[in-house]
Design brief:
The structure is a single chain. It contains 14 helices and 20 strands. The protein has 446 residues and is an alpha/beta fold. The chain has 3 domains: 225 residues, FAD/NAD(P)-binding domain, CATH 3.50.50.60; 90 residues, no CATH class; 75 residues, no CATH class. A 6-stranded mixed β-sheet has the order 8-2-1-12-20-19. Helix 10 runs parallel beside helix 13 and helix 13 runs antiparallel to helix 14. The chain is globular, with a radius of gyration of 23 Å. The protein starts with a strand and ends in a 7-residue tail after the last helix.
Length: 446
């Protein structure tokens, strides 16, 4: 089995296949991450939630990953002025997500894959293209100044949002992809440790929501935070406005005054760090017969606002691993994988886009806060029927994304009917019971 791409999803897939005794050759265009100290240009920490943890557990590496994790119990919401407020992610103490270093996690997964005798890892090896007709996978190894041809069937493409395999299939008319790019970009900054400790509350995702844009910060194990500005590419305010040190300083002083003291290298980093694009990739065909299959971001890249890109990819790996236990027929496996996972990918893509609006805007809306309290009360009263959509996505991997999307829409209608503008304590419980029992079927223990 070939795997193109040995990033997070590709490396985890190599581990899952290798533990089954499947011979694996994984090709990665970048150098061996174990030899690097910098992962320049890529987010240095990610949010790991229950779906991703279940995927790691099924591949047998979760216990090795745990020391890398920092729990985040909720969003620490920073208004423009005044004290921040911690908004818990869920109603239970164990409903938390985890900040994890992308680089550290990537190195760990590569190490685990490399320990398996039937897994071969080749770095500095770029996919040039695939030829399904002649069953050829062409690779380029610049360090050796040579191209290598290997048999295509079967190949799993886990080579990310800019997938070379996907592009090659599209060029041959075997698949088609479209990317919807947001008009918002992102740029990363550093909030360094203070005397080796975190300058802000450690166990939270910090967020400075400002309506049409926001700043967030996730904790790192070295005491620092990685801060990310999400802002319109053009317009006012927009990245196009921030063209001078003075403009950068004025913008942050006006919009994020409480964050500025924690950004000592603001201007230097803002000027030096890359401005990244955000988008959603939709692919009409994920596989070609029994020859090649797209997985993870190669098949369904999404925007990062629900923290589910990595988690969804790890869930892909677990699903494919389960299918391999049922049959050895690659055509059946690839077809069934696509049938099962494509609707799930479409659903989380939609929810990720919707969550951006919540994070940057509605989280400060009194009506949103009131309905969140009502939702928590409904979950307490009807734990087998009412689970907030965010919780279904983040903490309940047994509930698939399509179910979370569909039930979330129904629950929003219930919340609208129950929200009379008064606190959750004054909830009409008779009406709530009738709506919940009429419209929501049981999901099991909440």
């Amino acid at each position: 089995m070939n795997i193109v791409g040995a990033g997070l999803a590709g490396a985890l897939l190599a581990i899952a296949l290798g533990r089954k005794g499947v011979p694996v050759r994984a090709f990665e265009k970048r150098p061996d991450p174990r030899l690097l100290t910098d992962d320049s240009g890529r987010s240095i920490n990610l949010a790991l939630a229950a779906r991703g943890m279940r995927g790691l557990a099924k591949a047998g590496v979760l216990q090795r990953v745990l020391p890398l994790l920092i729990p985040m119990r909720g969003r620490m919401v920073h208004p423009r002025h005044g004290e921040p407020t911690l908004v818990p992610y869920g109603t239970r103490r164990d409903e938390i997500i985890y900040s994890v270093s992308r680089a550290a996690l990537g190195r760990l997964l590569i190490e685990a894959a490399d320990e398996l005798p039937n897994v071969e890892l080749q770095f500095d090896t770029t996919c040039v293209g695939v030829d399904a007709g002649s069953d050829r996978l062409e690779l380029r190894q610049p360090s050796h100044d040579r191209n290598v041809i290997v048999e295509l069937s079967p190949t799993i493409a886990a080579d990310g949002a800019g997938s070379a395999v996907r592009a090659s299939l599209a060029a041959a008319g075997l698949s088609a992809a479209r990317e919807i790019v947001l008009d918002h970009d992102y740029l990363e900054l550093t909030m360094p440790a203070v005397h080796g400790a975190h300058a802000l509350f450690r166990e939270a995702l910090h967020i400075w929501p400002r309506g049409g844009f926001m700043l967030i910060a996730l904790p790192n194990t070295d005491g620092s935070f990685t801060a990310t500005l999400f802002l319109a590419r053009d317009g006012t305010p927009g990245f196009s406005d921030l063209h001078s040190p003075a403009a950068i300083r004025q913008f942050f002083a006006r919009e994020f005054p409480t964050a500025v003291p924690h950004l000592p290298n603001l201007v230097q980093e803002f000027s030096a760090h890359p401005q990244g694009r955000l988008g959603t990739v939709y692919v009409d065909r994920w596989h070609v017969a029994d020859k090649v299959l797209l997985l993870g971001d190669a098949a369904h890249a999404i925007v990062p606002f629900h923290g589910q890109g990595m988690n969804c990819a790890f869930e892909d790996v677990a699903e494919l691993d389960a299918l391999l236990a049922d049959t050895a027929d690659t055509r059946i496996i690839f077809d069934e994988f696509t049938r099962r996972r494509k609707p799930q990918a479409d659903a989380i893509a939609q929810m990720a886009l919707e969550n951006y609006l919540e994070m940057r805007d509605t989280v400060l809306d009194p009506a949103f806060q009131r309905r969140k309290q009502i939702a928590a009360e409904l979950e307490r009263l009807f734990p087998d029927r009412f689970i907030p959509r965010y919780s279904m996505v983040m903490f309940h991997p047994e509930i698939d994304y399509t179910t979370a999307l569909a039930r979330g829409a129904i629950q929003e209608e219930i919340l609208a009917a129950l929200d009379t503008g008064v606190p959750a304590a004054a909830l009409d419980r008779t009406l709530a019971s009738r709506l919940v029992h009429t419209r929501l079927t049981p999901l099991g223990p909440g």
